[in-house]
Amino acid sequence: DVIAGFLYAILILVVIHPVVDLIDNFNLTYKYAPLIIIRTALEMTAVEKIDEQLASLQIAKRSTLSEEPAYLLDIDVSKPAQSESSPFVAVSCSNKSIRVYNRETLNFLREYSSCPGILSGVRFAHRCDSIVFSACSDGTVKCWDVRLATQKAVQIFSGYPSNAFSSFDINCSDLIVCAGTEKVEKDTFLVFWDARGITNCASAAKEPLGVYSESHNDDITKICFHPFETNLLLSGSTDGLVNVFDINKDNEDDALIATCNSDSSVGFIGWSGKDYKQVYCMTHDEGFCWWDIARLDTDEPITLLHVLDVRNTVCIENDSLHYLVGGLYHEKADKLFLVGGTSTGNIHLISCGPNGLSLVGTLCGGHSATVRSFCWNLTDESLLTGGEDAQLLLWKPGAVERSLTKKVSMKIASSVQKRVRVHNSSLKSRKK
């Protein structure tokens, strides 16, 4: 009895009183604790739902093989006007052409030639779903109106002499176009233009507003504007650096917010996280880096995850991972996903978190060769993929395709493979 009484006294002093005090002192937190628990449960359910949708993706449509087969190197989908569905898909090809398809049926609509230059991606305007852009190694960024049958570009943005563009993007307000150049002698540039007037199909060539020339010292492989901050720009290069700029600043030095070092040649970059305050990159030797630039002014490290070789990290039963294609931040799930694959055409969807990478699912039976490009539509959770087998595929959750016949792999030289060179030297970051 003495021992029991002693234990009961300890229970009151150590457990019950502190809990009562905690409830009294933090009544607000106690009151809303169930709401926090419910919200967390809903967020977990959203993530699980997204994982299930991704794992259930099946082929819905397959484009008809072109008379001149080519690698499909980049894909973009036109932004829907108000509540309408997005009607156009644009694809840049290894034969120096842009092909336009109907988004729902994948029926071929028209083709534009970029000869004699090599294309470096395609992008639709954000506020006009019929205007599509592409940068070219001939030193121009051209845009076409896909409603018109003419082969003539409706707008040309001309660079400086010797410029050969290897990347580009247009900001979310369609006001600024930026293109990155290959290195010529000692020069590498980010070139900017005023894009106003594109929706009116103005035909006069536009000269640059100016350039950034000091922040990279090798080919600029990727450029990515912020999804909704018109002044924020991300750039990646074979020099291993990923730079964040505020282009509203008066000069390049002030504009450079942060420099993140991947220690290898950068092949893909993107924004992620709530309010898109995180950036990530994939390297040409299949590495992955993820940074939180919201921590720049804090004592916390900005690196969230650094994987030297994703191929050796992600466990895939009865299969393997040969390469990475790109990534996408899913707002609903607050989750970053990576897309990778195999040389035989399998596509791996990978979930990214602070603790590492994990496989969500594998898409099989579609492509017969390396997948080079993809475009994710978060509205209906559909996925477009293009590859070295010259196929454009539309994947949807639970879809059923009439024919699952795979095309044979094409054995033609890839312009991407020709231009990629891995940068192995370690470079020191100039800023935190």
UniProtKB/TrEMBL annotation:
Keyword Nucleotidyltransferase in annotation: no
Keyword tags: Membrane, Repeat, Transmembrane, Transmembrane helix, WD repeat
Intervals holding WD repeats: 213-255, 364-396
Matches recorded under InterPro entries: WD40/YVTN_repeat-like_dom_sf, WD40_repeat_dom_sf, WD40_rpt, WDR89
Transmembrane region(s): 6-23
Organism name: Galbula dea
Pfam families the record matches: WD40
Name of the molecule in the record: WD repeat-containing protein 89
